[in-house]
């Protein structure tokens, strides 16, 4: 399952998510590249683009995906300017969307260990629904989740 450049299929949570990732991978397109994202980007900075998470975690009231604008695939490659910009994004989202609690979640490295389904550096800001817990898993899978299948394209 490690023969992919931009994705790690075993960590996909939904069939639609997996299908989009596989289709983009087959076209040698990074699904997290702002040029190819087929959903609304709320705003961009010099270093990141921000959208609602298309596949939010169960229990999340609000969940934002913050993705590196450039092809950044390792945390070591995040500049101090990018870290500062990420902080500013968090403050902006917190204020504009009245986030009164939650988490800033980010994985790194080998997706078989991190739990990420996409390899481009990205972060999640998650505010749970009142009285709910959101499980943001760290730790990857070796096989697809039960019920998900890799479909053949073209």
Structure overview:
The protein has helices at residues 15-26, 80-96, 111-114, and strands at 43-44, 48-52, 60-68, 103-106, 122-128. By secondary structure, it is α+β, with helices and mostly antiparallel strands. The longest helix has 17 residues, at 80-96. The radius of gyration is 15 Å and the shape is globular.
Outline the secondary-structure elements:
Layout: H1 15-26, E1 43-44, E2 48-52, E3 60-68, H2 80-96, E4 103-106, H3 111-114, E5 122-128
Antiparallel strand pairs: 1-2, 2-3, 3-5, 4-5
**Global morphology:** globular
Number of domains: 1
CATH fold node name: HIT family, subunit A
What is the average per-residue confidence, as pLDDT, rounded to a whole number?
Answer: 94
Detail the poorly predicted runs.
none
Straight-line distance between termini: 20 Å
Output the structural class.
alpha+beta
Instruction: Please count the beta strands (DSSP E, at least 2 residues each).
Output: 5
Helix content: 10-25%
Number of helices: 3
Radius of gyration: 15 Å
Order of helical and strand elements? HEEEHEHE
Strand line-up of the largest beta sheet: 1-2-3-5-4
- CATH architecture, please? 2-Layer Sandwich
The CATH H-level superfamily is HIT-like
What does the largest sheet look like?
5 strands, antiparallel
Query: Which CATH class applies here?
Result: Alpha Beta
Strand content: 15-25%
């Amino acid at each position: 399952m490690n023969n992919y450049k931009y994705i790690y299929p075993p960590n996909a949570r939904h069939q639609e998510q997996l299908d989009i990732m596989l289709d983009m991978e087959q076209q040698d397109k990074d699904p997290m590249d702002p040029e190819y994202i087929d959903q609304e980007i709320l705003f961009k900075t010099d270093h990141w683009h921000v959208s609602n998470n298309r596949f939010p975690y169960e229990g999340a009231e609000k969940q934002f995906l913050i993705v590196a604008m450039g092809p950044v695939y390792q945390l070591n490659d995040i500049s101090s300017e990018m870290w500062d910009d990420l902080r500013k994004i968090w403050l902006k989202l917190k204020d504009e969307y009245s986030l009164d609690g939650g988490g800033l979640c980010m994985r790194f490295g080998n997706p078989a260990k991190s739990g990420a389904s996409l390899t481009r550096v990205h972060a999640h800001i998650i505010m749970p629904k009142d009285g709910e817990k959101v499980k943001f898993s760290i730790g990857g899978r070796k096989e697809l989740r039960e019920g998900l299948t890799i479909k053949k394209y073209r």
